[in-house]
Amino acid sequence: MAEMINIALPKGRLGKAAYKLLEKSGYDCPTAMEDGRKLVFENKEKKVRYFWVKPSDVAIYVERGAADVGIVGKDILMEYQPDIYELMDLGLGKCKVAVAGKKGTFYPKERTLKVATKFGNIAREYYRSKGVEADIIHLNGSIELAPILGLSDVIVDIVETGTTLRENNLEVLSEVAGVSARLVANKAIYQFKREQIETMVKELGNFVEV
């Protein structure tokens, strides 16, 4: 008899898009889309249990085994490098991690480059690969403000349309990586529920447009 599959979904627009994809694939649970404070939803007939968590926490729930599988942005996987399986690219939430700064910004040769970001590990690895010495300044919000006020030379951040950059006289200087939502699984649980999880991957594959 099939066991319940526990699925961690990120709160917000990406999570809703991911749920719709899962719903199309036969893993529907209508109550999951109801407004309210409830966080756990299940459809015993379809053998699925959903719960909504902060996007950056999805990988933690999966890595620790509280969730069997989850939907998480590639940027989160790159930044935190959790010990989990990345099963497939869902083609949702496409954007990029990029370096941005004032128009015409050049890397200073006489001192260390100052980089403001909430993706410290991604930025550090990127500049290490370029042989550039970088001082990583961790910020949690309004990162675009850093180069405007001289706190940093550049920023490393998620860029979708680039509208916020343009409105603040900033521009993309280089692309670090393209990112999108990925289906991930707990390594130990995957061995026990391999057939169910592989079936899910197969069903999702019928609707994914990468």
Summarize the structure.
The chain is of the alpha/beta class and 210 residues long. It has helices at residues 13-24, 58-63, 74-80, 120-130, 145-148, 163-167, 187-192, 194-205, and strands at residues 5-10, 40-43, 48-53, 69-73, 85-89, 95-102, 113-117, 134-138, 154-159, 170-179, 181-185.
Beta-strand residue fraction = 25-35%
Distance between the termini: 33 Å
Q: Give the radius of gyration.
A: 19 Å
Largest sheet: 6 strands, mixed
* Residues in helix, %: 25-40%
The SSE string, one letter per element, is EHEEHEHEEEHEHEHEEHH
- Helices, by number, come to 8
| Nearest-integer average pLDDT | 93
Structure description:
The protein is 30% helix and 31% strand. It is of the alpha/beta class. It has a six-stranded mixed β-sheet with strand order 2-3-1-4-11-5. A five-stranded mixed β-sheet has the order 8-7-9-6-10. The mean pLDDT is 93.
